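Justification of computing resources. Each target in the renewal requires a structure prediction run like the one illustrated here; the chain below, 267 residues long, is used simply to show the kind of job we budget for.
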Amino acid sequence: MTRVLGIHGVRNYKAADSAPHLGSARLRADWLGAIGAAGPGLDLETAYYADLLRSEQQGAEPADDELALVEQWARVWGIDPSGAQGRATGWLRWICGQVAERTRQNPAVVEKSVRLFFPEVARYFAAGREPVRARVRAALVRHRPEVVVAHSLGSVVAYEALHDLAGKLDVRLLLTLGSPLALPNAVFHRLDPGPLEGRGARPPGVRQWVNIADVGDFVAVPKGELARVFDGVEERPEISIAPLWPHSVLDYLRHPAVAEAITAGRH
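Resulting structure tokens:
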């Protein structure tokens, strides 16, 4: 059996009001169902931390720290955030519309991606980083995975937690899916450990790091940048997991490219 640890991304609130182990069990069942053909022979566990980042003000207007992250994201797309007045719903919608125009995507889908992702990223960097990392570190030490699969914000948590455990684990494969690790200023320059001379490092104890991103994934930007700003990353060709919602972890896990990477990482 190959030990695999899954580290989820944003908005996994199914069991946020229950004990963390229940959230992990629900995630594990969902992930195993999605992995399908790659699943036999996997001893899969999932690290659950969504309850630590959940806000009691879901659906509220974006806070200033969230909008600051959106501004950095907009600049990656070549958009001048001062092109619209104010910094609230209208401003956010205008930026999402500009990105949608550049990518020929539905503006509502772009806005949904932004509204789901950046509030939790802001909470992670503001106050949630230490408790989230501690829980993921504990899962890594307990399960001692040979393969780590990390999605979205989970790739940021995995990167930092694996650095925390330098020399204590032997991970054959770190597989990042829909990762924002290269997003300048909003994520990349806030990592711990931070980049040295403009480059991040593959976590010690990780033999291979593979990154996979959907061609339309608005979170995984700048496109193709991980290998340029991190040492030891292998970028797989961009794939298409789901044109209408290109950031779902279950759609990533169902894709043959992901199954192939997991299977290769087992040997």
